[in-house]
Design brief:
heterodimer, A: 5-stranded antiparallel beta sheet, 26% strand, globular, B: alpha+beta, Sulfite Reductase Hemoprotein, domain 1, 6-stranded mixed beta sheet, 5-stranded antiparallel beta sheet, 18 helices, 17% strand, binds protoporphyrin IX containing FE, binds iron/sulfur cluster, DUF2849 (chain A), DUF2849 domain-containing protein (chain A), 4Fe-4S (chain B), metal ion binding (chain B), oxidoreductase (chain B)
Amino acid sequence: MKLWIITGSATESGAPIYLQTNNRWTHKLSAGHPIASEAERQSLLDAAKAQQRKVCDPYWIEVRRAELGHLAPVSLREKIRAEGPTISLVSTPFSSTTPASRPAAASA
Amino acid sequence: MYRYDHYDQVLVDQRVAQFRDQISRRLSGEITEDEFKPLRLQNGLYMQLHAYMLRVAIPYGLLSSDQLRKLAEVSRTYDRGYGHFSTRQNIQYNWPRLQDVPDLLAELASVQMHAIQTSGNCIRNTTSDHLAGVARDELVDPRVYCEIIRQWSTLHPEFAFLPRKFKIAVTGAPTADRAAVRVHDIGVRAVPGRTADEPHGFQVLVGGGLGRTPRIAEVCREFLPREHLLSYLEAILRVYNRYGRRDNKFKARIKILVGALGIEAFSEQVEAEWAQIRDGAMQLTPEEFDRVAADFSDPDYAALEPSDLFVQSLALSKDRALGRFVASNVLPHKRPGYSIVMISLKAKGKPPGDATAEQMELVAELADTYGFGRIVVAHEQNLVLPDIESRHLPELHARLSALDLAEPNIGKVTDIIACPGLDYCNLANARSIPIATRISERIEDLDYLHDLGDISLNISGCINACGHHHVGNIGILGIDKQGEEFYQLMLGGSPSDDASIGKILGPALPSAEIVDAVANVLQTYVNNRESADERFLDYVRRAGFEPFKEQLYGQPEHA
Ligand code: HEM
Ligand code: SF4
């Protein structure tokens, strides 16, 4: 059975966010709401598109159940999007006080 | 250096205020992303995989030490403490938050920098030779013309909505194109006058470009008197604006139009348009030229003894780290006693073109201490200290080494040009940066690296070719094969006076094999070259692909 999640980029930061239930968004893919039917996928995508202040260009991605039932993206692109660049950034790790730092989870 | 006049400053400040208002309306929900997108793209603000990305122009690559310090400060305050220098003399910040962008731009405006026209279908940052003003082989300083083009093209109302983006490059060195003019929409080459008393003029090339349809530019006009530069550029842009295809994004670049019409018909159109406007207000008077040229006059060089022999002796120094650095990263300067120092942003295992705030600050300080406070960004994604007294080279080398800025690999195969690829880019098919870092880690032996001689290696993560893979001596293109990263290997490209588009060597290789394949290609060259003087590119052109195919795929071409 295929599973999907609705995702998009948060307007305030451009960070990937994932749709939960009740029109809430999370920065953690695994906390997104898994969708199992094409009908629900379409209606949630429409709902996401209506939230244009919070989210830019929402779309759906395919996910799968990985170890311990955790949701994980199917494509490499979405894996990198969810987890960040695969390379070591040249700078020292940014501190939590840096304005650009990305919260691990937040309802955008 | 060129300093903003009142008009420049007002224009940039007004743009910051306007964009601040647009951003606040986006954040409040008053405008949608669809409405905001064209506005942010006019201001160099993209959306990548993880965050917004802001592209800031560095006109003709020239920075003052204060500007570089500001770029460092901005990266620390509003980003993650580093920036990415691109192949078109821009810097990109990968993590700005939308609400911070107006303040970031206001900071940049305070040092006469901006992000206007760094994306969208307009005339982009005009790029140039990174050795402009200091090279021995230069006929005229191209930055003067780049600045004149910048003033003409900035917010030019007729060319704000072209069929597609438009890139111009200018070189002032007739025999050594270091600005890749043949792969630009318009390439401008300074050439000597046709008679002894005629001043220099330009050869104007048109229709070059990479992307999905790579094309080498063709000559539109052999000799253009210099006073007509702007009117001639305007004529080309008018013909493009009128006939360029707006119905298909993939066929919208000027190279497609030039290809469809043929260069003769295209240049006839340009000449006809030009005849209408050539003697108008755009003529460049000697006074106007001198006014702009005054900003690019030489700094106060000291009268020094020639230092070429001294530099040669340093290159052979027993201190091999210094010797290798001088041999590959130090170039002759037009003034006796001075050298040009190239700073590689391609340290082993590091993303090509990235520099941390600390590194930028150190380079700014070194420019102040040892140079005249000037730094240049090279299109190969490196930095240049253009005016170093040769006697300071050992000290400078030691100070650069402390922050991993002394990699002795300029022009060598690990001086890799790479686009951001799938680690950042929304359009990517595959990663570029990890391939670059793996190759640089693989070629550990510096004697081997230097023995290989000058080889360019370019990597793009998709067909858009931001990493110029078509014009790398070795080019690597990332593709997606059923969800797996594969890489096409190309050989034989060159962006210079002998420009050529590389050709695909054979079937694409999976990520796990591509680094071995590059090592294999290099070894085939070393084993078969006539002598160490035969460059890699010359060997490929002479021997063809057969020896490489045989070694790599185990089959001769005609088997
Ligand atoms: C958000 C990231 C980027 C996006 C969305 C992007 C997009 C594109 C696209 C769509 C093209 C193809 C244009 C065409 O063929 O008509 C292109 C070409 C190009 N880009 Fe990028 N790019 C990005 C980052 C970069 C970077 C980081 C560099 C420099 C390292 C760069 C330099 C270039 C160059 C030199 C070309 C090819 C030359 C030409 O225009 O023909 N781009 N880019
Ligand atoms: S070549 Fe492709 S992957 Fe690389 S930066 Fe350009 S658009 Fe992105």
